[in-house]
Fold this protein.
Amino acid sequence: MLDVCLLGTGGMMPLPNRWLTSLLARYNGSSILIDCGEGTQIAIKEKGLTFKPIDVICFTHFHADHVSGLPGLLLTLGNAERTEPLTIIGPKGVERVVNSLRAIAPELPFKINCIEITEPTKSFNINGYILEAFKVNHNVTCYGYTIKIPRAGKFDPQKAEQNEVPRSMWSKLQKGAIIEENGKTYTQDMILGPERKGIKLTYCTDTRPVSQIWENAKDADLFICEGMYGEPGKEAKAVEYKHMTFYEAAELAKKANAKEMWLTHYSPSLVHPEEYADEVKKIFPNTKISKNGRMTTLEFEEK
Ligand SMILES: [Zn+2]
Ligand SMILES: [Zn+2]
């Protein structure tokens, strides 16, 4: 299962009761943070979550509302006596940006490995989950991210017999072992049925509604998407600043056939985003007008 917490829901600047948009997801004891604007560490504290398991930080892009919380967070991780290395993933220039921000956090007790994304899409295997970055369309290079947890097929004893896999190996193979015996290699796929539906979460912000987004969010259990503007008449502004309206986000969720959508990254001028809930639900009924600290746990489907 994947624990998800949308730490904040603001765009541009933090407001009282609205932290900047940032997502914390935890799988198998390891946490990933996507975006880290000013105040992100306060949002983490406020939710009673811990810093220590954060192994990966991803940046969508290098606008201040998505990165300026990094030095403070690094110092806090350092004070928590972290020694394990930290991976920071982001668009081209990530190392330069991280090093500049680190001028005020120069001595840390852990190593930072920066991974720069230069391709339109890139996939990573991290701690048992798959992280996929995909380029979107903002006024600087910006990526959305999908977290996928694959689910292996069910154990199929008939298939195991057909493949002449000795019974003594069944349980080891189910756990993912590869066994060599008498010149034959035994692998998990020799005893398991077809792969089952896993867990999928897609997060994207600061972009126009391009097709890459719904393609990447296809059948997602949860789609978290920016909704900079909810009020009518903001379409031209959304185009000019390369953001989205609630309704554009809802169209993406519908095309993606997502199970649920959470809106985030509201403009500071949008004081009561919930006022537009009925309108946006006409396009995508399972829309949540998120607030600070919205949490859920995504689990494998029963069947
Ligand atoms: Zn932003
Ligand atoms: Zn931006």
Observations:
- Residues 61, 63, 138, 206 surround zinc ion (ligand 2) (CB under 6 Å).
